[in-house]
Specification:
The complex is a heterodimer of chains A (1112) and B (144). Chain A is of the alpha+beta class and 1112 residues long. Chain A contains 47 helices and 17 strands. In chain A, a hairpin with a 2-residue loop joins β14 and β15. In chain A, α16 packs across α18. Chain B has a single domain, classed as Beta-Lactamase. Chain B is built from 5 helices and 7 strands, in the order ββαβββαααββα. In chain B, strands 2-1-5-4-3 form a 5-stranded antiparallel β-sheet, sandwiched between helices. A two-stranded antiparallel sheet of chain B has the order 6-7. Classes of the chains: A alpha+beta (1112), B alpha+beta (144). At the A-B interface, α1, α2, α3, α5 and α7 of A face β2, α1, β3, α2 and α3 of B.
Chain lengths: 1112, 144
Amino acid sequence: MSDVVEKTLTALPSLLSLDSQPGSAKLSSSSKLGNLIRGITELTSKHEEEKLIQRELLLIKEQVSSPNTTMRQMKELMVRAIYCEMLGYGVSFSYIHAIKLAQQGNVLEKRVGYLAVSLFLNEGHELLLLLVNTVLKDLQSTNLIEVCMALTVVSQMFPKDMIPAILPLVEEKLNHPKEIIRRKAVLALYKFYLIAPNQVQHIHNKFRKALCDKDPGVMSASLHIYLQLIQENPEGYKDLAPSFVTILKQVVAGKLPMDFNYHSVPAPWLQIHLLRILSLLGKSDQSTSEIMYEILDESLRRAEMNHNITYAILYECVKCVYTIHPKSDLLEKAAKCIGNFVLSPKINLKYLGLKALTYVVQQDPKLALQHQMTIIECLDHPDLIIKRETLELLFRITNEQNVTVIVEKMLDFLQINKDDHTTIDLVGKVAELAEKYAPDNEWFIETMNTVFSVGGDLLQPDIPNSFLKLLSEGFDSVEEDKKLRLFAVNSYVSLLEGGPSKLPQRFLQVICWVLGEFSHLREDLEPDVVLRMLAKLLDMKSSSSETKCWVLMAMTKLCSGGAALALVQDVSETYSSSLDTMLRQRAQELQILSQDSKLQAKVLPRSASMEPVEVDSSLSFLDGFVSEALAAGAAPYKPPHQRQEELSRSKALNMEPYGLSLPIGMSSCSVTDRQSPTLLSISSGLSGDSADFSHKGSSAALKLDGVKRLWGRDGYLAKKEAAEEAPQVEAASPVRSPSQRGDTDGSVSQTPTPECDQEKQQLASSLFVGLATQSSVCLMGKSEPTSQRFRRKPKASGGSEPMSNPLASPSDGADNVLPQNLLDSSDLDVSSPEQTHGLPQDPDTPNGSCTAEEESADPMAEPSAHEDLDRSRDSCLSSHLPAELSALSHSEITSLCSNQSLDVSACHVQREDSVVLVVFVSNRSDFCLQQMRLQVQSEELEVSCASDCPSEELKSHSVAVCQYLLTVQRPSVHFDLSATVSWQLPAGSPQTAPFSYKLPLTGFIRALRLSTEEYGAMWLAYSHDTKLNLTLMDDDQDPLAATLHVLKRKLQLHVVEIIGVEAIVACCLQQDQPCLMHCRVHAGMLAVWLRSPVPDLPDCLLYHCQRALQEP
Amino acid sequence: MIKFVLMVNQQGQTRLSKYYDPVELSRRAALEAVVVRCCLSRSKHECSFVEYNDFKLVYRQYAALYVVVGITHSENELSIYELIQNFVEVLDKYFSRVSELDIMFNLDSVHIILDEMIQNGHIVETNKSRILAPLTAIDKMADG
C-alpha cells in the first residue's frame, strides 16, 4: 500500500491550522463560508456545534429570502446549507431556493443548485416537479455543460410521472456526437428503467445500440441496464452472451485506451461488471457457459499481478466459475486461487478468501477440507470480523457429526460479541442447526436454553415459536417425544429453582408454556410445586405484563388439582383488577376455570394442544349486541381497508391521471358488512400468516390456539426449505481414528504446517468430519438429504390448515328467498365453449376442487387401492348420468358414504342456468333394498328435487340416480349439503346413514357479458363492496393479462375491458346476481375492488380469486 | 450496491456524506456516529471490512481522514476498497495534493466529482480524466 496519496497526506502537517494551507487560499477566510468552516473546525462539543449551526441557520434563512441576494451569494448560501444539513440540521426552507438557483444561475451556480437539489430532496419529493421545466430547458441548451448537468441530475432523481415529458429529448441525446452526452443519456435511461420500466420498453433496441457504441464509456454505461435486465430475466438475453465475452476479452487484452487503466490493470470495475453479467447468463445453462470458459481461464491466469484490484477481479471470477455450469479444470484453478486468498498474510484478502470459500462450499463441501488448517487459524483470529466470517463458513458445512463442535464455537463467539445484529443472526443459526442436527435430547434442550438466554429479548420471535411447535407436535416416536418433553420440564424446573430473575422474558414465556403443558409428565412433581414456582415469577419486578399473561395461562392449565386453590385464588384476585386488559382477561379465566374443573378439562384438554379448535369465526353470537348498538345509533363497522381508503382520500391530493372513467364514489356500507372482518382475517391467514406473530394478542391468547395459529403453513415450510439447501453430506462413521484422518489429509494437496499442534489437529478432525467421505465432487446436484433428527411428522401441518368454511356458521333469520331465474337467459351468453368444455381437463376448475367428506370411510383400505377404486367407480358411475346431463361437464364423482349394503356417491353438474347435484346410490348387497329414501338439505342452498329416485326399491347391484336442483340463497365461500340415506333390508330394521357434500361458490359463478357502458351504469348502482390487494402472477410481459387469464380460466370471469394498468371484469351468480370487479396494478400488486347488489358475494368471490391466484 | 459514502475525520466529524438509499435526516447523525465508532476503534492490522447491521462498511484511512463506504452483502468489498483509493486519487489530481481543508472548502466540487463516479449506488465512471472533465469545464467557464 505504498500509495502516493497516502504519503502525501501523511506528510502534511497538522491539518487543522488554517494558515499555510493551500486549500484555504482559494477562499478568503473572511468569507461567510470560511467563517462557518473555521467555526466547525474549532468545535469542541456537541453543544457548541448546535449553537453555531442554529446561528448559521438564522443567517442563511434571512439572506436566502432577501430579494437583494445575488445568485453568486445564493450559491455560497447553498453550500452553507449543505453543510448544515450534513451535520444533521434540517434546512427545508432553502429547498425551494436550491431549485431557483438551478433555474436562474450561471453554469457553476446552476451546478451547485442541481447538486443541492439532489442532496436535499428525496425521490418523490413534491418540489421535484418544479425542476422539470429547468431540466427541459437545459436539455435543449446549446451549452454542452448545461446539457451534461441536466442529464446528471435526471439520472439521479426525477419524478416518475414526468418522464414522458423529457424522454424524447433524452433519446435524442443517444445520437449525440460527444461521448459524455451519450453516456449520460444512457445512464438517464437506466434511471428511467429503474423507476418506471414500462416507460422505456419501446427503446430496448437503443440499449443494444449503446452496447455496441464505439466509445467504451457509453458501452460500460449500458451494462448497468443489462445487468438489471438480465437479473430480472436471464433467458431473454442469452444471445448477448458472446458479445459480453468479446467485450471482456478486449478489456482483458488491454485494448482500451490507457486512461481506463487503474494501477496498470485495464478497467477493473468494468471487468467485474462483465463477470457478474456472465455468471447470471451462465447459471445452469451449459451451452452459454461453454462460451465463457476460455475468457474465464484467461482472467484467472492474468491474476498474477499482486495488487488488491486484481484480487477483486479474481474473487468475482471465482464466483462466476462456481456459479455457471461447472468445468472441472476451471474449478480446480479457481479452488487454487481461493488458496492464494486465504493463505495471504494480508487480512483483507484473507477475509475475501473466506467469503469466497463460504460461497463455494455450498457447491462443494470438500473444498473446506483443503483449507481446514487455515480455517482453524481463522477461528482463533484476534479480529472478530474474520472470526465471524469463519463461523459463517462453518455454518454451511455443518452436519450431524460436527454439529456439537461448530455450535460450541458459535456460542463461544456469542459470549464475546457485543453487536446486537450479529447476536440475533448467529443465535438464529444456532437454533437452526440444533433443530436440524441435534445428536440427543439433552444437547438439544441445553443448546436451546443457551440460545434463549443469550438471545434474550432480541431473539427473532419465530425461534421460540418453532421450538414450542416442535415440542408440542412431537416427532416420529411417542416414547422419544415424552423423553424430550420430560427433559425440558426437568431442565426448566431446575432453572426456576435457581435464579429466574436473570432469564430473559421470552425464555420465561417458553418455560411457562412448557411447564403448563407438560409438567404432568414428571410424576414426582406436584402441580402445586410448579404453581408456586410460577407464582414467584409474577412477583418478580422484571417480569413484563406479557410474561405475566403466559404465567397465568400456565397456571390455568395446572390449577385443576385443587390443593393450591388458595394460591390460585389469591393470584387471580390480584390481577383481575390489573390495568392491563390482557392480564385481567387471563386472571378472569384462571378464576373461573380453577373453580370449574369440568369446564377446565373441556377447554384445556391435556396433551391436545395440536387438536383443531372449532371457532365461530363469523362471531354470530355478537349479532344481538351489534344490532342493539346500531339501533342505538352507533356507526356501522367499516373494514380497515375501507377506512384507510377514506382517510387517504381525505388527506392527499390525487396525483394520478384520470385513466378509466369509472365512477368512484364513497363506498357505501351497510349492516351486512358485518361479515367482512371475519373474511378478511381468514384471507390474510391464507396469504401466509407467519407474520401474524407480531400480533401480541395471539401470542398471549389461550394456549388452545397459542402455537398453532402463529404458524402459517407457508412460512414454516419456507424456512425448512431454506434449511435444506445448506450442504448436507452423507454420514460417515461417527468416530474417526487419527490414522484415518491422516489418510484424508494425504489425499489433499494442502499439507498442514509443521507448527500446527495436536490440539488444532484434533479440532480439525472434529470440525471437518463427514466432509471427506464424499467420494466425488458434488456440484450443483443436491446430495441426498440426511435423516434429520428433529423432523416433524407430516401430519403436523394439518394443524395450520386454514379454516375452509368461514361463512358456514349458522345464522338464523336470514331467510331472504331469492327469486329464481328472473333474468331471461338470452341476455346472458353463458353457454360459451370455454366454460362448458374447459372443465373436465383441468383439475383446478370449480367443479374439480370440490371436496367430499367421507364420514364412514373404510379405515383398512390401502390409499392406493382406494384411489383405483375411486377411478373405476367414477367411470362406471358416470355412465349412469342422465342423458341430458352427460353432455355437460361434471365434477369428479366422489364417494360420500359406503357400508355393507350400499354406496353413495355424488357429483355436481354445471348447467347453463343452474347447478344440479346428482346422487348415485348403488346397492352392494345381494338383497333388494326397500324404502330407500334420500334427504338432502343445506343452510345456504335451496335444494329441490329435479327427479326423485325412480322407486323406493333398489335391486341388488343396481344403481339409483337422484337429481337435485341447487339454488343459492345466501352466498358463501363453500356450500355444505348434509344428507341422510335410509333404507331397509328385506329382513331387518330400517337403517340410516348420514353423509355430506361440499361444493365451492365457483360452481355457481357464470361469466357476465356486458359492455363497458353497461358496466359503468351497474357499478354505480351496487352497494356492497370489498377491496383487497392480490398478488400478481409472475409474467414479464404483462402480469395483468396473465393474472386475468388465470381468473378467467379458473373462475370463468368475463374480462370486459383492459385499459392500461386497469381492467374491468364481470360475472354473475346463477344468472341474476351480478358481481363486478375492478382491477388495477399498483405497486406490484393487483388492487381489486368488487361490487355487487348481493351482500357477501364480493367477499366470497374475493376469497376464490385469492385462492385461484395462489394455487399453481 | 453502495448505500452511502462518508468522509469523517479522527474526531468523528463528518466532512462529506452522500446517501444512495434514502435515510431520514434525523437518523443520519446516529448512523454516522456508530459507523465512525466502528471504524475508528479498529487497528491497522485488522480487516478493512466491518459488518454493521444489514450492510457492510468498507473503510480506508488517509492521515486523519477516513473514507467509509456502506455496501450491501452482495458487493465485492475489495473492489470498493480500491474505488475509495481511486476517488482519493481523483481528488488529489484535481486539488493537487488534497487535504482535509480542500475537501471542506470545496465541498461542492467534491460532491460533483462523486456524482460523476457513483450514481444510484452503482459505479458509473472510474476513468480519472473523464471524471474530472465536466468539473474542469465548469471551472473554466466560471473563470473565463
